[in-house]
Amino acid sequence: MKKYSILIVEDDKAIRSLIQTALEAERFGVFTAYNGASAIVQARTQAPSIILLDLGLPDTDGIQVIDEIRKKSTVPIIVVSARSEDTDKIEALNHGADDYVSKPFNVEELMARIRASLRRMEFQRGMDQGAKQFKNGGLIINYDSMEVRVNGEIVHLTPIEYKILAMLAQYMGKVLTHDMIVRAIWGSARAGMDEVTNLRVFMTSLHKKLCANSKGEKYIQTHIGVGYRMIQLPNLQ
Predict the structure, then answer these.
(1) DSSP code for 186
(2) In what order do the strands lie in the sheet with 29-33?
(3) Which residue pairs, CB below 8 angstroms and at least 24 apart, start in 145-149?
(4) CA dihedral 71, 73, 79, 80 (to 10 degrees)
(5) Cβ contacts of residue 108 below 8 Å, gap of 6+?
(6) DSSP annotation of 49
(7) Half-sphere exposure of 226 toward its Cβ, with a 13 Å CA cutoff?
(8) What is the CA 149 to chain-centroid distance, rounded?
(9) What is the full per-residue pLDDT of the chain (237 aa) written as tens digits?
(10) Burial class (CB in 10 A: 0-12, 13-18, 19+), 5
(11) DSSP secondary structure string, 103-140?
C-alpha cells in the first residue's frame, strides 16, 4: 500500500499523463480529475495527501475549487497553472493554495515541491505530537485542532499562514530569515524574488488577522531585508 496519494486536477490530457507518470515512478498513489466538480468530489472521498490543481478548468475557475476544498480540508494544494502574473499567484495563495508552479514547468522542480510539502506535513505532525498548546500574550495556538485565538477570538488562517505562525512560535524570540522560512514552508533552496513576494503576501495577511483582536499587542516583528521574529509577550492569566 502506497503511503501518499496525490490528486491531479488537469484538463490537458498530455500534461495530466506526464505528471501521473512521474508520480507513479516515485511510487505515489495517483487520482486524476479533468474538471472542478470531479476534483471537489475526489478531494472529499479519496482524501489525497496533496492536490495538484490547474486553474484553467473547463467547468469552473480553479480559485473556486480551492475555496470549496478549504471549507472542509487543509490538504496541501499546489497550483500548476499557465497563469504566471503575480496577481494570479497572490490570489491563489490568498484563497488557500500552499504553493504555485507556473507552466511550462520542470518535472523535477514539481517533484521537489511535492516532497517539500510532504516534509512540512511530517514536521507538523511531529509538532502536534509534542506540545498541545502555545501561549504568548493573548495569542493561543491549539495544535490538536489547529485553532488559533487572540484574546479569546478565533482567528481564521489559511493553511500556509498557520504553518508560518507555528514556525515562528516554535522559534519565538529568534529572527527567522526569508531563506529559513521559504525553505521550511515551500521547500525552495533559497528565497528568490518570487518566493519573497509570496512570503510577504502571507505575512501581511497574517499580521492583519492577528492584530484585529490584539488590543495593541504586536506579535510579529519584521526585520526589513532579513526576515521575521515572534516577540515574546507576558502570558495573560
Answers:
(1) T
(2) 29-33, 5-9, 50-53, 77-81, 99-102
(3) 146/74
(4) -120
(5) none
(6) S
(7) 9
(8) 19
(9) 368 999 999 999 999 999 999 999 999 999 999 999 999 999 999 999 999 999 999 999 999 999 999 888 889 999 999 988 878 888 888 888 888 888 999 999 899 889 878 877 776 665 555 567 888 989 999 988 889 999 999 999 988 899 999 999 988 888 888 888 888 887 765 666 777 888 888 999 999 999 988 888 899 999 888 889 999 887 654
(10) middle
(11) SS--HHHHHHHHHHHHHHHHHHHHHHTS-SEEEETTEE
Cell digits for 106?
Answer: 520542470
CB atoms within 10 A of CB 49: 19
Which helix (H) or strand (E) segment holds residue 70: the answer is helix 62-70
Helix (H, G, I), strand (E, B) or coil at 18: helix
* Contact partners, residue 89, CB within 8 Å, separation at least 6: 79, 83, 100, 194, 197, 198
Written as nine digits, the cell of 142 is 491549539
